[in-house]
From TrEMBL:
Belongs to the glycosyltransferase 47 family. Pfam families: Exostosin_GT47. Residues 83-369 form the Exostosin GT47 domain. This is Exostosin GT47 domain-containing protein. It comes from Kingdonia uniflora. One of its GO terms (molecular function) is glycosyltransferase activity.
Length: 457
C-alpha cells in the first residue's frame, strides 16, 4: 500500500471583484442578449420574405379595421387564408358566349353594360381576369367562371328571352367540365331582380351551380326561388363609381344639422303597395319625408349628382322593395352617409358572416309603413344616428367593386364566399369512375374522350 505524500497546494492570487468588473459583466450580458435578438429577428424576416408577395397579401386581404379593432372572415368553413384557383372561360372558347355578352349582332359593348345596377356582371368578370387566383389550366381549377352580360343584352335589345334561353343551353352543352361536375363548380352571375329566372330553364340546368346575385328569396312572387342559401352568394349592387371612388366624389355628405328632411324615398312607385304608401305618407308629412315624382328619362330626368344630392339631404334613406326584394338604394345610402331603413321583408344581404347589419341599418316591417315609422325615426337621437353612420363607414368598402389587392372590397368578400363553396370532390349523375381513378361517362368513355355537344339533363 503506497504512502500518501502531502504536497503543498499552490493557490493562485485572486484579484478583488470591483464595481468596475460588475458593470463590465452587465454590459457583456446585455450585448449578448441584443445580438441574439437581432439574429433571431433577421431569421424571422428572411422566413417571412420567403412566403412571397401573394401570400403576404392574402394574410392582409381578409382583415379590415372596424371601430378600432378588426373583423375577418371566420376560419370555420372558410379556412385561414384565401387559396383557390378559378378558370375564366374565354368569350371565343365556346360558341354562343359572345352572343350572351354582346348580343346576336355583337354591337353591345362591355362599356355600355358596366354602368347601372347590372354593372356587376362586367366588373366581376374584369376583376377575375386580372385576379391572382385565376388559372389558365382547367385541370387544376377549383371553380369555373362563365362570363355573360345577358341582363344588359336583353335590356338593350341584343337578345330576347327565348334567344337567351336557347343560347345558354347551347353554351352548356359544349362544357365538358360542367358535365363532369353537374355544374357544381361553375359560377354564373344574374345581377338583376329577376335573378336566374332570366334564364328560363335555370331550374333544369343550373340547379346545382353557384349563382352570384343581389336577389334573394322570390317565393313571395314565384313558386320557386332561384336563390339557394347553401350554394348561391348574395353580392352587393353596383353603386355609381362617382360615389365609391376615393377622394372627390360626386356628392359630399352633409352634417346632420344641415339636412332638411328626416327621411327620403327616391324612386318610382311602380304600382307597388309599399312605395305607394310612402308617396302618400310624404304628402301627409312633407316637412319630414321627401318623395318627389322622379323622372329617369326625358327632359326632366334627374341627373346622377342631383339624385345623390337628394339622398344626402335626409338622415334616413327608406329602401322599400320594388319588383323584387333587393334595392340598390340600400347600398347607395352608405356613400351619402344616410342610415338605410329596409322596408323589404324577404331581403337577403351580402357577407352576413362578417357584417352585423343590426349595427349599421334598420329593418322595419313593410306592413307597418305609416306615421308610426316616422315617429320612431324621429325618436332616434343625432348621437345614435352618428354611431350608425360611423360603423357604416367602416364596412362600406365591402360594397365597392375593387381588386382583391385592396385590403377591403366586394371582390375580396366574393372570393372568400366562393372559397367556402369549393369541394374536394365533384360528381354528377352522369359521371362514373373506375378502380384506377379514371373518370368515365355512362358509355365508359374516359373523360378526355367525351364528345360534345353533350346531352344535358
Amino acid at each position: 500500500m503506497g504512502t500518501i505524500t502531502n504536497k503543498t497546494r499552490i493557490i493562485p492570487s485572486q484579484t478583488p471583484c470591483t464595481r468596475t468588473h460588475q458593470f463590465g459583466a452587465l454590459i457583456l450580458i446585455a450585448t449578448t442578449f441584443f445580438i441574439t435578438r437581432l439574429i433571431s429577428n433577421q431569421s424571422c424576416n428572411t422566413n417571412s420574405s420567403n412566403l412571397g408577395v401573394n401570400q403576404l397579401q392574402l394574410r392582409q386581404n381578409h382583415v379590415f379595421v372596424n371601430n378600432g379593432g378588426s373583423i375577418s372572415w371566420p376560419d370555420r368553413g372558410y379556412g385561414s387564408q384565401l387559396s383557390l384557383k378559378i378558370y375564366v372561360y374565354d368569350e371565343g372558347e365556346i360558341d354562343g358566349l359572345k352572343e350572351l355578352m354582346y348580343g346576336r349582332d355583337g354591337k353591345i359593348t362591355a362599356e355600355a353594360c358596366v354602368k347601372g345596377q347590372w354593372g356587376t356582371q362586367v366588373k366581376i368578370h374584369r376583376l377575375l381576369l386580372k385576379s391572382m387566383f385565376r388559372t389558365l389550366k382547367k385541370d387544376e381549377a377549383d371553380l369555373f367562371f362563365v362570363p355573360a352580360y345577358a341582363k344588359c343584352v336583353r335590356m338593350m335589345g341584343g337578345l330576347n328571352d327565348k334567344e337567351i334561353n336557347q343560347t345558354y343551353v347551347k353554351v352548356l352543352r359544349q362544357m365538358l367540365y360542367f358535365r363532369k361536375s353537374g355544374g357544381r363548380d361553375h359560377i354564373f352571375i344574374f345581377p338583376s331582380g329577376a335573378g336566374a329566372h332570366l334564364f328560363r330553364s335555370w331550374a333544369t340546368y343550373l340547379n346545382r351551380s353557384i349563382i352570384l346575385t343581389p336577389e334573394g328569396d322570390r317565393t313571395d312572387k314565384r313558386d320557386t326561388s332561384a336563390f339557394n342559401t347553401w350554394k348561391d352568394i348574395i353580392i352587393p349592387g353596383n353603386v355609381d363609381d362617382g360615389m365609391t371612388k376615393i377622394g372627390d366624389t360626386l356628392v359630399k355628405p352633409l352634417p346632420l344639422s344641415r339636412r332638411k328632411y328626416l327621411a327620403s324615398f327616391l324612386g318610382r312607385a311602380q304600382g307597388k303597395a309599399g312605395r305607394l304608401q310612402l308617396v302618400e305618407l310624404a304628402k301627409q308629412f312633407p316637412d319630414k319625408l321627401e318623395s318627389p315624382e322622379l323622372k329617369f328619362s326625358g327632359p326632366d330626368k334627374l341627373g346622377r349628382a342631383d339624385y345623390f344630392q337628394h339622398l344626402s339631404n335626409a338622415k334616413f334613406c327608406l329602401a322599400p322593395r320594388g319588383e323584387s326584394s333587393w334595392t340598390l338604394r340600400f347600398y347607395e345610402s352608405y356613400f351619402v352617409e344616410c342610415v338605410p331603413v329596409i322596408l323589404s321583408d324577404q331581403v337577403e344581404l351580402p357577407f352576413q358572416n362578417v357584417i352585423d347589419y343590426t349595427r349599421i341599418s334598420i329593418k322595419w316591417p313593410s306592413t307597418r309603413i305609416g306615421h308610426q315609422l316616422l315617429d320612431y325615426l324621429q325618436s332616434i337621437s343625432d348621437k345614435e344616428i352618428e354611431g350608425l353612420l360611423a360603423r357604416g363607414r367602416q364596412v362600406r368598402c365591402l360594397f365597392v367593386y375593387a381588386p382583391e389587392t385592396e385590403p377591403c372590397s366586394a371582390m375580396v368578400g366574393i372570393l372568400w364566399e366562393l372559397q367556402r363553396k369549393v369541394s374536394q370532390f365533384y360528381q354528377s349523375a352522369e359521371t362514373f369512375w373506375l378502380h384506377n381513378g379514371s373518370v368515365v361517362n355512362r358509355n365508359l368513355e374516359q373523360f378526355h374522350n367525351w364528345k360534345f355537344p353533350m346531352p344535358l339533363p
